[in-house]
Write a structure and sequence with these properties.
By secondary structure, the chain is of the alpha/beta class. The protein has seven helices and twelve strands. Mean pLDDT is 82; it is low at 179-192.
Amino acid sequence: MGKKKYYFFSDVHLGFLDFANEKVKERKLVKFLDSISNDAQKIYIVGDLFDCWIEYRKAVPKGYYRTLAKLNEIVENGIEVNFFSGNHDFWVNTYLRDDVGLKLYPDFLDTILDGKRFFITHGDGLSKSDTGYKILKKILRNPVNQFLYSLVHPDIGLWLAQGSSKKSRLHTDDRAREAETYSENTNLNTHGASGMRQFAEHKIGEGFDFVVMGHLHKPQFVELFNGSRKGFYITLGDWISNCTFGEYSDGVFQLQKFNSKENSQLIKVIKE
């Protein structure tokens, strides 16, 4: 019997914690990847795998060997691994594709899984309070600007980027705290979470069954209606505080919390 499960996770932010705690987090992530590699058909990393990723033509950030080696092993075993650029790891060139074997998506993916239509994206720039970031995103992703920045020595370029990354993460943490006031059983939204929700509602109106995002660091399941269309808006949480992931198979989407000692803990199941 062929593999049938699809796995989703986001916002690991490798490199965020101090050295000792980062190693603990990375080992837990590798153990998670080991645990799903037996039955996964496809894996979706929905942005911000790294806390800061700037890829020079001849240099990439140091560290992350265990994670990258495990991802490459999974790919070599015939499992497709899809990588979405987040607001912390958008500067991707060819290394993750050619050396690690990941399929790269700079913005979003529209795909069919087990007969259901999925829209998958990191979610950065969709909050109503992200106007300034949208402008900055266009500047930072401009090929000319990236070329000019690549002329800066990697030691300096990465140091500057890491400082910017910390400020960006604080902004995201604020959005997650605002999302705490959000309930799937009410129409009440904060201005930070509502842009992503409204975007998801619009996509459901276009015919999508599931809209999957990261970015907020807050695991959520929300059932949405747009006219006669029903669908689900999912934010995957993070691997700094929650260690959550999504699992989809045969029309059932489960949001789970990974515990390396006690196996995964089910948070919620949605059946379409």
